[in-house]
Amino acid sequence: MIFKNRAEHGFFILKIVNFIILSLISVTVMSPVHAWWDYGHKVISNIAERHLHDGTKTAIKSFSEGKSLEDLSIWPDKIKSNPRWSHTRPWHYINIDDKETLNTAARNQNGDVLKALVIQYMKIADTALTNRQRWQALGLFIHFTGDIHQPLHVGRKDDRGGNAIDIKWIDTSNKVNLHQVWDGLLIENDLSIHEYAKKLDVASAEDIVNWQTATFADWARESKNLRDQVYDFGAMNILRKTPRLGEAYALKNKSVAQERILISGIRLAGALNALFSEK
Question: Which residues are CB-contacts of 247 (< 8 A; sequence separation ≥ 6)?
């Protein structure tokens, strides 16, 4: 492009800068969920850390190279778009359709969240691996523990775990999808990670024992069993192409999302304590 003078060139540059700024603002407004689910994973890690034994904390510190559980919990989302780590993308979820069970569902040959949990869990305590390999396994395990407790990470294949279902959410004109609602919008609040973890961490000793005795497969089954409630949009939305989910849906489901976060943190602590407490 040829400019007649410096002023014209400067005006063109200004337009480009303004376009970039507006684009960034638009992305921030339209895509709030990633940050909020980062928040959710960090809350899970914070809850878990409250229940780790001293021996477990010492063992993790010996190979984590200064990385906190909170930082490790969001690392898998940050690297999955990297070509070197793109093979981990299927590890964040498992597809089980409504009429299928965990035993009858066709499993992804490239892996899924359930298989990844088993493999990464074994790697964490493997002293034959490098420290880097072990903290990477720990980060993946922490993150996938959170993922499998979100009901739509044990999702229907036809709607990609709710990603293909557009939603109008609580008095906004912006469309989100159902998966985003459960990944973060339900737990949106003004509390810090520490404050929110403290608020949720009210499990009884009996609950802790019951939750920690469940297997990885049990975790997946629980999430699938919650899906009927997740997809219950109410009678007002039956004929709507794009369901409108408001305060009633949030009120009914926020406590479910919060409990899944709490259970996830308690189970994460239990799994890590089982690896290291007697070592």
Answer: 170
pLDDT by residue (tens digit) across 141-191? Answer: 999 999 999 999 999 999 999 999 999 998 777 789 999 999 999 998 999
**Which pTM was predicted?**
0.86
The sign of the CA dihedral 49, 197, 148, 135 is negative
Q: How many CA atoms lie within 13 A of 106 on its CB side?
A: 3
Q: Is 53 exposed, middle or buried (0-12, 13-18, 19+ CB in 10 A)?
A: middle
CA distance 127 to 223: 33
Locus of tokens 């980062």? 38
Q: How many CA atoms lie within 13 A of 155 on its CB side?
A: 23
Note whether 183 and 36 are within 8 A (CB): yes
Assign residue 234 a region (left: φ > 0; alpha: ψ between -120 and 50; beta: otherwise).
left
Residue 22: CB atoms within 10 A of its CB come to 10
CB 77 within 8 A of CB 105: no
Do residues 90 and 68 lie in contact, with contact meaning Cβ atoms separated by under 8 Å?
no
Cα–Cα distance measured from residue 149 to residue 159, given in angstroms and rounded to the nearest whole number: 19
Give, for 151, the enclosing helix (H) or strand (E).
none
Helix (H) or strand (E) holding 14: helix 6-30
The tens digit of pLDDT for each residue in 233-246 reads 998 888 888 999 98
Tell me how far the alpha carbon of residue 164 is from its chain's centroid.
17
Cα–Cα dist 188/39, whole Å: 9
Nearest Cα to 227, choosing from 107, 97, 115? 97
* CA–CA distance, 20 with 235 (Å, rounded to integer): 42
